[in-house]
Write a structure and sequence with these properties.
Number of helices: 1
Low-confidence stretches: none
Largest sheet: none
Strand content: under 5%
Order of helices and strands: H
Number of strands: 0
Shape: globular
Radius of gyration: 14 Å
Structural class: little secondary structure
Helix content: under 10%
Mean pLDDT: 78
Length: 70
């Protein structure tokens, strides 16, 4: 449950049949990510991708990368 003034993390859908959201990259390269909001109030404050050999805590504490929006 979301709490006012606290960050929360979700890595699954919030549908009738939720499932984890993940991606497997077969080889190094540059990839595009498209995110579509489902409503006018849809918002994303932070988006984190990290390798499976890292923990969520390590990912959250990592230096932020350059953000390029198209």
């Amino acid at each position: 449950m979301n709490k006012l003034g606290e960050w929360t993390w979700k890595s699954h859908t919030n549908d009738k049949d939720p499932y984890n959201i993940f991606v497997n990259f077969e080889k190094p390269g540059i990839y595009d990510v498209e995110i579509s909001g489902r409503s006018k109030s849809h918002a994303i404050d932070q988006f984190v991708l990290f390798r499976t050999d890292k923990t969520l805590t390590q990912a959250q504490n990592a230096k932020l990368s350059k953000i390029t929006c198209k």
